[in-house]
Specification:
Chain lengths: ~575, ~90
């Protein structure tokens, strides 16, 4: 590694804070031992992984260390569990795998962390340096393959570089806009011995605020007659919820959240209009459409939020606050763009709209008019009602993890979230199979929390092998499997936008999920009538170990409202 | 690459394994066609500058946004953009 790389980091990463004190020379130790020491120095407690040939020296060094290794049953499970661990703790989740297929199996989880800005360090074994580039057994260029989906990556070619690279990798993963960092470790590098110095700790410099920009933002807020606050996952990543709530309270501005922003403001806050976008509330989407000022905080004008972007908040001026300057102006040119510490900037937005009372009342009325109904006809189980009841029974301290599909949207629409990081979902990548590994990661990150995974019958099969991990570590995850015997979201789109031409969405040959769970040693039960819901929720929450509640629902139940693809958010379809 | 009808972007960076591929890959992935590349090394090979001649694939791709995206890459120390119109004016 080029040593100068460690000294010439960009402004957010100014390099080691100080020269390390002279320590007595140490005896050389193996690269694997240096890696374990580096992880311990970073405060890592859990590592999610799966051993194999090229990474065996590191597994050898784990024995007797302070690190707890969680043996998953597929490397994708390791990366997704590390992702959730990183979301809950705010510190990099660590996953590791061997070379070749072990490394490629991590890719979806790394991409998931990249898309949702999650701190992660992924460690991959590699064939020996003399074999690299020769198509050796289990050789794959994971460094090259992952380049578009990591914040940074390394191949360590010298054992003595290990401490410095790991220190820098953890710093990059957690600083600024967080993200995954990959470290590829040729086998000989982990076997050879060296005695490098411990690296100095990194210190992040805080950038000065844009005073002129803040003044202009305050001017726009004071003049606005119809402002909306639009916040996203950047709020919880920056741990800026206190600042967001203070700003919302003093300004009284009606607020909407993205999928990843849920919990930034409590669901039951009076000014909160709900999630916006494709499956957002009518109140949120119409209010954004009619606003004259849109204050975007930690969000990125994602296509699932904006619909056809040319039609999104057309009449509004935009103030955009984000930790990442590259997000500002990427899709919507703001009148004021402010990059930096989101909490610090929010604290400086002290202006209040002088003449927006009528607008606030209008938004509140829209919210009241669009309140959800839960009195679906029939005796079958109405998933939105079940999830609402489950959320209320579990309480505000519960953590929900989701898979991807209709159930994911129902959780977002019908569960209540009083705090950030209580809702772990694959927002950017949309990874089916995220739910159970994320539940594992969340339980280890916050052992006192009640953790509930909501999955679907398509998604659960993507990583169902991780039931063995739950059982192995006796993690009391509560799984609610919403089973409509179909790939529900795809089926919904085929029904609505492909003239009902159902293609490869039928899952009526699903296995008996309760039997599968029991085969893994996990308690499980099935319900299919509405009258069973209340008792099932009580049993689910009262069970002390891992448990699976299998819920059969009607596959014709769709997610509403829905903005059709390439349409304006005002063109919402509803069930009626 | 002087006198081209396409904009250019000059990227100063710390020389490291993968740095060139990382930068060029980002340029293409973010919606720009690469028409030419030149590179020089400085500081006894520890730093370098890559100049890329490029063209946006559609009007929604902005050079200033690309510049910020390159700037957040670890090891990139400076990014400058040059448009034919601005160069002609100077």
């Amino acid at each position: 590694m080029n040593r100068s790389a460690l000294r010439s980091a960009p402004s957010a990463a100014p390099g080691p804070a100080e020269t390390p004190a002279q320590a007595p020379a140490r005896d050389p130790v193996s690269g694997a031992r240096l890696i374990v020491e580096a992880l311990e120095r970073e405060g890592v407690r859990h590592v999610f992984g799966y051993p194999g040939g090229a990474i065996m020296p590191l597994y050898d060094a784990l024995v007797g260390s302070s690190l707890t290794h969680i043996l998953v049953r597929h490397e994708q499970g390791a990366a997704l569990a590390a992702d959730a661990y990183g979301r809950v703790t705010g510190e990099p989740g660590v996953c590791m795998a061997t070379s070749g297929p072990g490394a490629t199996n991590l890719i979806t989880g790394i991409a998931n962390a990249f898309m949702d800005s999650v701190p992660m360090v992924a460690i991959t074994g590699q064939v020996g340096t003399h074999l690299m580039g020769t198509d050796a057994f289990q050789e794959v260029d994971i460094f090259g393959i992952t380049m578009p989906i990591v914040k940074h990556s390394y191949v360590i070619r010298n054992t003595e570089d290990i401490p410095a690279v790991f220190a820098e990798a953890f710093h990059i993963a957690r600083s600024g806009r967080p993200g995954p960092v990959l470290i590829d470790l040729p086998k000989d590098v982990t076997v050879l011995k060296a005695a490098p110095d411990a690296p100095a700790p990194f210190k992040t410099a805080s950038a000065a605020l844009d005073e002129a920009g803040l003044a202009e933002a305050n001017r726009l807020i004071a003049e606005a007659r119809a402002p909306v606050l639009y916040f996203g996952g950047g709020v919880q990543i920056a741990r800026a919820e206190r600042a967001l709530r203070d700003f919302a309270e003093r300004s009284g501005i009606p607020a909407v959240a993205t999928l990843k922003g849920l919990g930034g403001l409590p669901t039951d806050a009076p000014q909160y209009l709900g999630m916006l976008g494709m499956h957002g509330t009518r109140a949120a989407n119409i209010s954004v459409d009619e606003c004259d000022l849109l204050i975007c905080v930690g969000a990125r004008f994602d296509d699932r939020v904006t619909g056809k972007i040319d039609t999104f908040a057309q009449r509004a001026k935009v103030i955009h606050l984000d930790a990442d300057p590259a997000e500002i102006g990427k899709l919507r040119r703001p009148e004021v763009g402010l990059a930096g510490d989101v909490a610090a900037m929010l604290d400086r937005l002290t202006a209040c709209p002088a003449d927006a009372d009528a607008w606030k009342a209008q938004c509140a009325q829209r919210k009241a008019d669009g309140a959800n109904c839960y009195d679906a006809p029939g005796n079958g189980i109405y998933a939105p009602a079940l999830l609402k009841s489950l959320s209320e029974a579990a309480g505000d301290d519960a953590i929900f993890t989701c898979d991807v599909g209709q159930h994911q949207m129902w959780v977002a629409q019908h569960c209540r979230f009083a705090k950030p990081r209580a809702h772990l979902t694959s927002g950017g990548l949309g990874t089916m199979g995220y739910g159970i590994p994320a539940g594992i990661g969340a339980m280890l990150a916050d052992p006192d929390a009640t953790v509930i995974t909501v999955s679907g019958d398509g998604s659960i099969m993507m990583n169902i092998q991780e039931l063995a991990t739950l059982r192995r570590y006796r993690l009391p995850l509560k799984i609610v499997l919403i089973d409509n015997s179909a790939l529900g979201m795809v089926r919904q789109w085929q029904e609505l936008f492909f003239a009902g031409n159902f293609s490869e969405v039928d899952l009526s040959d699903n296995p008996d999920f309760a039997e599968i769970a029991r085969a893994f040693g996990i308690e499980a039960f099935t319900i299919d009538r509405r009258s069973e819901v209340e008792g099932a929720i009580k049993r689910l929450l009262a069970t002390s170990g891992p448990v699976l509640l299998h819920v059969r629902i009607d596959q014709s139940e769709n997610v509403w409202p829905l903005v059709p693809p390439n349409c304006a958010n005002t063109q919402m379809m509803d069930s009626a | 690459m002087g006198g081209s009808s396409h904009p250019r972007i000059a990227i100063d960076f710390v020389v490291a394994e993968g740095a060139l591929v990382r930068m060029i890959g980002l340029v293409e992935r973010r919606g720009f066609i690469v028409h030419g590349i030149g590179m020089t090394k400085h500081d006894e090979g520890e730093t370098g500058q890559m100049v890329v001649e490029l063209e946006a694939r559609d009007p929604g791709r902005h050079l200033d946004v690309l510049s910020l995206q390159l700037g957040r890459l670890h090891g990139v120390t400076n990014v400058s953009t040059f448009t034919p119109a601005a160069e002609a004016a100077s």
